[in-house]
UniProtKB/TrEMBL annotation, chain B:
GO terms for molecular function: dihydrolipoyllysine-residue acetyltransferase activity; lipoic acid binding. It is an enzyme of class 2 (transferase). Its cofactor is (R)-lipoate. GO terms for cellular component: cytoplasm. InterPro entries: 2-oxoA_DH_lipoyl-BS, 2-oxoacid_DH_E2_comp, Biotin_lipoyl, Single_hybrid_motif. This is Pyruvate dehydrogenase E2 component (Dihydrolipoamide acetyltransferase).
């Protein structure tokens, strides 16, 4: 893991040291506002990001405050949004582009994978790509096709990209500021179904911004999750407690690089793990997490690491997403499978 | 509260304008999604335009007989901040429901 001192120190110095209740939308909006205020090289753009303030209002009011040259609308062409980001980064800017929805990133895969991820490598370090690509991600809002997808495994597979997903307003605020302060391209996956839930944001103290975070300590089993699934796993942990099972919930946060040490520490203690993600099962990030756990905890694991995920089908629209996204019962069944397992 | 402008949408068949025949809602009205907003006439046909969303109508553009171009403002809605411009719906944090119970013998070896 790399150092996080810049954003932490900056956040600590920035504002009053008491926490405020904000939604993730408000927290992200505030973070962008502060990034724009503190760094004249930052530009924010995307479809409807300017005048409208974004379809999720994440960029609300930013164009009026910081001006159209720095916060602007783009044509409906993701390849153009990300291609322009490459050029802006080469010219010394710090772009924070948005693709409006996860599924709209596909038309820009060439720019992301072939340019943004490897320009620094290709140029022997002379052309870094300090780009933070905001991607409203995952499902849960009854939206149509291409509006509920989980692309973390695709992005995490690409050398040169970092991938992060906050699960609550506090982390959203600090991780966005942290990501924007990095010299490397970061894919910032915002759990769109969590935009409107409020939580305490302590602007002065972001805590550790690298690696995973234990959001609920427990003794018997570790649920590993990220993005919107963290909140669901916390609900499951409460229900499991009714049955006498003490579940730890680990918010992975960084999906590239994955905090293998945190996995080892948590599962080393609980000796059982279930990974939960919305993305399809096959070649999902759950497989990577399971391998990292197995590598470090093989001798002490009480059961194979289990996975509760979406299915290997295109993301379903509308009400069907309730059957697709891991629900409470499916996660509880995953926990039960692991608890029941006996060697030999 | 936030304002959302609903411009005259592309009505298909290459049409670029429509004439307002009659408004079916007035400023101040609370409308539901798919509720008819206005009767329009194009060079092809007369049609009722359904509301793309729920919200309170706060402004309407175009008196009966006036022509509006595709893309020009037609209706402005007022909606709560957390639904403004969103695609899909805002999920509620319902009390969790379960059917599965856990049972386990935890040998603490």
């Amino acid at each position: 893991m790399y150092e996080s001192t810049t954003a932490t120190l900056e956040a600590r110095a920035a504002t009053e040291n008491q926490s405020v209740k904000l939604s993730m939308q408000q927290a992200l909006n505030r973070a962008l506002d502060e990034i724009l205020s503190n760094d004249p090289k930052t530009v924010v753009f995307g479809e409807d990001c300017g005048r409208l303030g974004g379809v999720f209002r994440i960029t609300d009011g930013l164009q009026a405050k910081h001006g159209e040259p720095r916060v602007f609308d783009t044509p409906l062409a993701e390849s153009g949004i990300l291609g322009m980001s490459v050029g802006l980064a080469m010219a010394g800017f710090h772009p924070i582009p948005e693709v409006q929805f996860d599924g709209f990133a596909y038309p820009a895969i060439n720019q992301i994978v072939c340019q943004i991820a490897r320009m620094n490598y290709r140029s022997r370090g002379t052309l870094p790509m300090p780009i933070t690509l905001r991607v409203p991600s995952f499902g849960g809002i009854r939206a149509p096709e291409h509006h509920g997808e989980s692309l973390e495994a695709l992005f995490a597979h690409v050398p040169g990209l970092k991938v992060v997903s906050p699960s609550d307003p506090h982390d959203a605020y600090h991780l966005l500021k942290h990501a924007a302060s990095r010299p490397d391209p970061v894919i910032f996956m915002e759990p769109k179904s969590r935009y409107w839930q409020k939580g305490d944001v302590d602007a002065a103290d972001g805590g550790t911004l690298t690696g995973a975070r234990v959001v609920r300590p427990g003794r018997h089993l570790t649920l590993v999750a990220w993005g919107a699934m963290v909140a669901r796993c916390l609900q499951v942990a409460e229900l499991a407690a009714e049955d006498g099972i003490d579940v730890e919930v680990l918010d992975l946060r960084w999906l590239k690089p994955i905090d293998a040490e945190a996995l080892a520490t948590s599962v080393g203690k609980t000796r059982r793990a279930v990974v939960v993600h919305e993305a399809p099962l096959t070649s999902g990030l759950g497989a990577e997490v399971a391998q990292l756990i197995t590598q470090s905890c093989f001798d002490t694991l009480k059961a194979p690491v289990d996975r509760v995920t979406g299915f290997d089908v295109p993301y379903p629209s509308g009400d069907l997403e309730d059957e697709y996204i891991p629900n409470i019962d499916r996660i509880l069944l995953g926990i039960q499978r692991v608890l029941e397992y006996r060697r030999g | 509260m936030a304002e959302i402008s609903f411009p005259l949408p592309d009505l298909g068949e290459g049409l670029i304008e429509a004439t307002v025949l009659d408004w079916l809602v007035s400023p101040g009205d609370q409308v539901e999604r798919n509720q008819p907003l206005v009767e329009l006439e194009t060079s092809k046909s007369a049609l009722e335009l359904p509301s793309p969303q729920a919200g309170k109508v706060i402004r309407i553009h175009g008196a009966p007989g006036e022509t509006i171009n595709v893309g020009e403002p037609l209706v402005v809605f007022e909606v709560p901040d957390n639904t403004a411009g969103i695609v899909g719906t805002v999920p509620k944090d319902d009390a969790p429901k379960r059917r599965v119970r856990l049972s386990a013998v935890l040998d603490e070896d």
